[in-house]
Amino acid sequence: MIVETHFEKAIISINRINGVKDSILAGLNGIPVSRVDKNTSILSATTVAALGAVREMTKSISYGNLEKLIVETDFGKIIIEEFGTKHVIIVLTETDANIGMIRLMLKKAVKDFIDN
Q: Is 66 helix (H, G, I), strand (E, B) or coil?
């Protein structure tokens, strides 16, 4: 699958950033694309549900289109970005991760996907 191949490269690059624990590619149906196990299945499904809820909230208050969702916890951050009309990438970080670098890599990955 072209999407999987293209984003596998992006996921490898993102995972190399200091402070990134893991990255997961999932469909907007909540099913993981890159690898499937119990943890990624649960994370993918709940992430897509949360993303849908936040998207509806921003629409209901006329606050523009959702670009990405960043969840901060005491263990780190979860960065969620939609790309295309069918996929989402989920990045799990430690508390000291370089969020700016991660955002740049996500932006590049999404742009490369759209351009191809």
A: coil
Mean pLDDT of the chain: 86
Please give the structure tokens belonging to residue 91. Answer: 């990045």
Which helix (H) or strand (E) segment is 78 a member of?
strand 77-83
Q: 37-74 pLDDT, tens per residue?
A: 788 889 999 999 999 999 999 999 999 988 889 999 99
Dihedral through CA 42, CA 107, CA 54, CA 27, nearest 10? -40
Q: How far is CA 97 from CA 52, 78, 115, 116, in A?
A: 26, 11, 28, 29
Angle, to 10 degrees, between the axis of helix 2-15 and the axis of helix 99-115?
A: 160
- pLDDT of 7 strictly over 60: yes
Report how far apart, in Å, the C-alpha atoms of 45 and of each of 6, 18, 29, 50 are. 22, 26, 7, 9
8 alpha-carbon distance from chain centroid:
13
Q: In what order do the strands lie in the sheet with 77-83?
A: 20-27, 87-93, 77-83, 68-72
